[in-house]
Amino acid sequence: MTDIPTAWQRHYASVPTTLAALRDVQTVVSVFNTNIDAVRTITPAVFDQLAAAAGGTPAGTDGPHAIAAPGDLLRGFLACFRDGVAQEWLVTAEDTFRWLEHHVGHDRLQMGGQGGIIANVLAVCGVQNVLVHAASLPAPQAAVFVDRPNLLSADAGGRLRPARQIDRAGDVPLIHWILEFRRGDTIEVNGATITCPRSNRFIATWDPLNFVLAIDQDFVDAVNGHAGRLDHCLLSGYQMLSQTLATGETARDRILASKRVVDRWRADHPGLVVHFEFASTQDRAVRALLLEEMGGWADSIGLNEQELADVLEVAGEDDLAAACRHKAGSVELFTALERVFALCGAPRIQLHFFGLYVTLQARRWRHTPEQTRHGMTLAATVAASKAGTGSIDTEENLLWAHGQPIGEVAARQLEALADHLAARDGASDLLTTGIHRAADHDVIAVPTIIVENPRTLVGMGDTISSLSLLGAR
Length: 473
Prior knowledge:
The protein is an alpha/beta fold. It folds into 2 domains: 358 residues, UDP-N-acetylmuramoyl-L-alanine:D-glutamate ligase (3-Layer(aba) Sandwich), CATH 3.40.1190; 106 residues, Adenosine kinase, small domain, CATH 3.30.1110. The chain is 41% helix and 20% strand. The chain has 18 helices and 19 strands. A hairpin with a 5-residue loop joins strand 7 and strand 8. Helix 2 crosses helix 14. It is globular and about 60 Å long.
């Protein structure tokens, strides 16, 4: 039998060279959501304290994926804790937001929002110019940007300046709670014992600006006037939309407004690659809108296994969606991913899940499968470094995980997928090369480095998606 970890050492050996090549990327625009994350580790004792403050534990975990009352926070947390999965629920009542402020608190503050997290990562990795949108940018928000001259946002006068130096003092800070939990912890709920199978987090979000996908026109104008070439536009933040907004607009109105902004950039910068991160979107109607509006418009799409199931659900693929939600392995998830790839029409789609990243790309895609694999091994290394060190805000931590072997779970996931593809298509070199040529597209699969007892899991998907795409070279 093939020694899978050893076979993959040569593919991971290219990671330092791939990282250095990111300095050739001229300008990336990261939009639209940036906020402050208040991170709190929820131990069993802390959960008991919160339950006491909320007046008791919920009877179950079923119900809307929204937080209208403190009990909903506990219900959502328990659902994620029980299954070891990540979800984001929106806080829909201001008095509940105030309850969170008073009772949950934080262990630390850090960059939040896919747009902000991606911007910090790419700036540290050496991209020449990272232009980041911030609907709110007072001093507390500026303080969680990395202190880099290549990380720029718009000040109150509409000028692009280092984001860390900006203080739009009239803006209100936007704060999200990241409730992290750890594998092996147990919680007693209504006479039953729940044991967490995998470390992960539950996100409770109160964010009136990003709830309506607010777009800072000063930033848009500054990017319109940017003299250099735009290489990539990374889109996120749509998951907080609801069908009808406080502004009187609809979700479709805001989605179309954002597309008009990006289409202007596309027209001014031929070759601009637009990537859409399909984050956890609880409003089913909004999810369907995003599939409709982004699927055939974005060049690239990124998602995790929960988001994959969410997309299938609104596409009417109930059986595939159910398969994704019930402890699916690489074969079931791959089958589902191929279906979404066909539905979306985007030339590139990437799935990241525990142990394995899988990219499907059309033959017309700008990168070869080997180049895509380079980006994915870079992403796997930096993501593991983030998990292991807790922060990749300095270059010293970026390659912390380089040289560590892939995990046993990762090897098993890859092996199962390789066997499936060999049986379906007649032959496959996926196990040793990570590359398989399907009938009308290429499959690239990379087994990952797995960090036991990670120090953080916040922003992992954003790190993986952005570096997989930009590192393909």
